[in-house]
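Cross-check.
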Amino acid sequence: MRDLIRNRKFIFTLAGFLVFSILIGTGIQMLSSSKKELKLLKEQQREMALLKDQFVTLRQKVAAVESKKSLANMTGIVQAIDEVFRSIGVKHKVKTVRATGQKEVKEGFEEEAEITLEKVTLNEMLNIFYRIENAPMILTIRKASIKKSFDNPELLNISLVLSFLKPK
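Predicted model, tokenized:
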């Protein structure tokens, strides 16, 4: 009888230890999978933060372009070119302005013109490019050709093809 009671105690103790071991194993496995899931979620959070930063940057760029579209009260590319070059003070160096055409695009009407400037200094050229880039309208440089002047090698002759986007 005593052997039977000892055997039962032993069996219950062994069963309790076995249940405890199974619970510990299951808990460790759940903890491990939770750690993996946490690692994946942290990685996704980092990716989302990067995407958010890129989205904010793109939204700011779009807003800048949209504000340029709303400020573009120019009637055509010739008036826009006149505005840019007059503000810099190199209007007298513009030799030719030739409108090459107008085409309809999704955002509005795009006009192009070829401009030739002669005897421009490097500083004036930089100011022209800066002013075109930061003009309160959508002006884009399609093509630029820069050559040294024959009279003075320090001066430049510039040929530009500019595009002006006029909203509908």
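The chain is about 55% helix and 30% strand. The mean pLDDT is 82. Passed to J.P. for a second look.
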